Amino acid sequence: MKRLLLLLPSLLLASCAPSGNAKPTIVASFYPISFLASSIAGDKYDVVCLTPSGAEPHDFELTPKNVTTLYDSKAIFVNGLGMESWVDSLQESLKEKTVTLSDGLPTKTIDSRIDPHVWLDTRLYEKMAENMATSLAKLDPSNVQFYRDNCATFSKKMADLREYCHKIADAFEDKVIAVNHAAYGYMCNEYGIEQLYINSISPDEEPTQKAIEDILKAVEERGIDTIFFEELASDAVAQKIAKETGAKTESLNPLEGLTAKEEREGMDYFSIYRQNMDKIARSKP
Ligand SMILES: [Zn+2]
Questions:
Q1: What is the C-alpha separation between 118 and 214, in angstroms, rounded?
Q2: Do the domain assignments include residue 18?
Q3: What is the CATH classification number for the domain harbouring 170?
């Protein structure tokens, strides 16, 4: 490891060597976790998101460079509930500084498996923000009030988002959506919408013939005119079903990551969540 570092150009070393201005690092597994980390940690820590932008986190695997980042960090924040299978193989010292933000949350199951997409229920995501604030306060007790204040600001924004989404959802008469990947169970539960899906937990699993037939039938019977897919996974099956039923396709972002375009446009959890609800509301026949 030391020998490897010596081989790196000095420019690269500058970013990992401690200096007067260097901030300690905390690591987040994928987008909703890193968004929480930067919202609550503010300027006290540098937040490193492991899953690169444009990548889908369900199948993410650690690179050797990631492992170095984990060792250099003060804490590792994960969603848990099976989203980060790599945690199981971490060395004990890394496991000890890993914080699972979904701990203590009520969960749902889908096809007999735990549904990990808790961040899409704004009430549960708010709890995860509180867990993040508690954890940062333990790590850095001199700034307890700072983390509490950031958490309060975050909760206020979540309350505004919730109010906006309830208005939209109340006016959405169909109360049913068809999606390529069952990421939206928690969101649908929060707003009283039913989710019909092609793939259950992971977006890139091969759906069974029965799952395809079931959704084809449901889409036709219930007059669904939009099949939602997500930009970070394959949309082949969603396109096929849309073609066979005459429905159109539209993207919906399960907030597992941002596309390059969303990043360029400065979008975040709040704006994408609102955009998702707007698209759902427009999807009625
Ligand atoms: Zn997912």
A1: 26
A2: no
A3: 3.40.50.1980
Ligand 1: centre distance to CA 115 (Å): 9
183/186 Cα distance (integer angstroms): 8
Which of 137, 128, 147 is CA-nearest to residue 41? 147
Question: Measured in angstroms, how far is the CA atom of residue 146 from the centroid of ligand 1?
Answer: 32
Distance 18 CA to ligand 1 centre (A): 36
146 lies in some domain: no
pLDDT tens per residue across span 146-181: 999 999 999 999 999 999 999 999 999 889 999 988
Q: How far is the CA of 116 from the centre of ligand 1 (A)?
A: 7
Max CA separation in the chain (angstroms): 65
Q: Is residue 144 part of a domain?
A: no
Could you tell me the residue range of the domain that residue 276 belongs to? 166-282
271, part of any domain: yes
Reported pTM: 0.89
Q: 229 alpha carbon to ligand 1 midpoint, in Å? A: 12
